[in-house]
Structure formats: C-alpha cells, structure tokens
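Reopening this ticket.

The earlier resolution said the output was attached, but the attachment link was broken on my side. Pasting everything inline this time so it's all in one place.
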Amino acid sequence: MEQTTSYDRTGRTAYIEGCKKMGVVPASYFLRHMHDTNLSMKHHGLGSMGMKPIAMSLMTNTQIVKLDLSDNWLGHHGGLAVCEMLKENCFITFLDLSDNKFGTRMAEHLGKILNSNSTLTHVVLAGNDFDDTAAVSFADVIMNTTKIEHLNLSRNVFGELGGMLLGPAIAENSSLKELDLSWNSLRRKGAIAVAQGIKHNIYMKKISLSWNGFGLDGSVAICDALKNNQTLEEIDLTNNRITAEGAVIIGKGLSVNETLVSIKMGKNPMQSAGCYGICAAILRNPNSIMKELDFSDILVNNDFNDIYKQVQEQCPELKLKHGGMEPPKKPKKPVHPMVKLANYIQKNNLRLVDFFNKFDKDGSMSVTYEEFQQGIEETGIKLSSDEVSQLLLELDSDGDGEINYSELVIGHTGFQEQQDSINTILTATQPRPMTT
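Inline output:
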C-alpha cells in the first residue's frame, strides 16, 4: 500500500534538521509552541546561530501569525536569516524585531524585504541603533508600503538629517495608521520636516514623537500640522523641550482642529502657563472633540484649574492627567520696622542723635507718640500704621507715653546686637568648601 505523508504545517522537521546542520540544541519552547498563532520568543538569547534554524522552519510554517523575536541579539547575520524567511512566509502579519543589535548595515536589507512583503501589517524595529544613514531605507519603506499599518522605529538614533528624510515620506504614505518615532533625536529641521509630513498625511491616526527635541521651531510646525491635518486623532509630544511659548503656539492649532482626541505634553518645561494655553485654545474651539490631556509631571495652579473646569463643561468626556498642584507661595517675611530705621540712618550717614533731633523739635531729648509719627512721615520712611505702633511699643520701654533719647539708643543697639547674633549663627552653620 502506498504511504502518504501529511504536509508539515509547523516546519518542525525543517527546524530539527536545521539545528543538526548548525550544531545547535533545539529550543524546546519553540518546539512546543510552533503550532501557536501567537509565538513569543523574546529574551531567549537566540543569537544568529539560534535564529537560522528557526528561520528555516518559519519558511514553511503556516500557523504563526504574530511573531515576537525581540531582545535576542540577532545581529546582522540573524537579521539576514529573518529577511530570507520573510521572502517565503506569507502568513506572519505581526513582527517584533526590537532590541536585536541590527545596526545601520541591516537597514537596507530590512527595507527591501518590507517593501516586497505583502502580508506584514505591524512591524516593530525599536532599539536597533538605526541612524540617519538607515533613515534612507526606512523613508523608502514609509513612502512605498501599502500594507504596513503600524510601524515602530522608536529608541533609535535618527537625528536632524533622519527627520528630514522621514518627513517627506510620511507625507506620501497611504497605509500607516500608527507611527512611533519616540526616543530618537529629531530636532530643528528634522523635527520641522516630520511635522510637515504629518500636515500632508491623510491616513495616519496616531503618532508618537515623545522624547525628541522639537522645541520652539518644532512647535510652530506642529501648530501648522494641526491646523491642516483632518485625520490625526492622537499625538504624543512628551518631553520635547516645549516651553510655555511653544505650548501657546501649539494651542493655535488646537483652536481649529476638529479630529484630535488625545494630546500628551507631559515632562515639558511649559509650566502651568503652557497647560493653561492649551486649555484656553480648546475652549475657543466649539468643534473640539478632545478626550485626553496628559500634562504628566507638570505642576498646575488655581488659574489652570479654573479654565479646565470651563473646558470640561464644553468637553464632558475629557480626562486630565497632570503633576499635581503647585505648592502655595510662601509669603515674604515682613521686614522689621527697626531695620527700615537702621537702613535710613545708614543710607543718610546720620548719627543716632542727629536722627533723634529730627523728631525732638524743642530739644527736650524726649518726643511724644504724635511727634514721633510726624517725624517718621517727614523723613519719608515707608512704615505702615501698624509698623509705627510696633516701634512705639518697643521703644517706649517705661510705658510713659514718650520716647526719650536713651530709649532709642537702647532699642537700636539691642536690635543690632540681636541681628549680629543671628548672622553669626547662620555663618557658622554654612557648609565649608571641600579642600584638596
């Protein structure tokens, strides 16, 4: 009787033979789960040698749809094995290759396979040291792909030039729904180019630009993008060196935008004033559909709370996150009225007796409360009525309703000695500089 062999849908046979050929021990986890639709092989330490047999197996595997190979130190040769596998496999739709030490050399190979593959819709390439040179290949992918809907290029080293290359590609893309460029070094002209790409893109729903360096110039470009883009729903601008001025500028875009539902701007040096500016812009936009404001790690004040309550009335579904309330400002310690007297005497180079004579019109070496108050007004020393009353009580030590010269001398000298004592204590408690 003729024997028939069933088709190996998992590639198990190819894997075992590949391991023998490469001289590596088969991964028992892979053997147990190669029939799953969702396979996670992250943190398995495969390296290039361990990856090659798996790639051979996946060429014929028809079960796995979602594949996670992150953090396996695949390197250049392991990456090449993945690319060869993707030429044959037409079932995998989700692929995570993050943190695999690919480097710039691998970008060209990945770019070619991503352009030719017709099944991948989700691709994660975070943390692979791709730089501005690699941006050429990924810009080509972004511009030409018609299948990839979610692309993650975060935690790489795209800089100003990289942004200038990626920006025009973003403008032309017709399939991406979500793009992650966070944790790169996009700034200046690169940041502006990316924002201009967002402005002209008509498909993307979500973009993460957090942990870059958009700054003021980038804020101006983001404002322009928000004014013109009619599809973007979520934008993450966390930690982008955006000041209060930059936030107000971005707010001008929000004041006319009718599609954005979430904006994240936490960890920016925009302070409560910047948060206020964003809310004020939303309040000016009757067509805003905003549902999430994220100002994480930014302290806000009561003025912000007041305007946010108004925004909530306009957008009832709006959720807010911020860094808490600013601590109340400590009131300045009032200056003792005796200090003001002492400063006046020193500034005008007067002796204490000369100062007293300004009050003692009759030369009796004693002045009434009324004469003292009148003298204070004539000197122009700025003392409130409470401060004058405090001085009178402190200087009139015998409580007879008059201040004589000796009481002024004793009061002035005693106060000076008290201040000198405080200054001595403060000086003694100051940390001494280190000596080498």
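Reporter confirms the inline version is readable. The radius of gyration is 36 Å. The chain has a mean pLDDT of 88.
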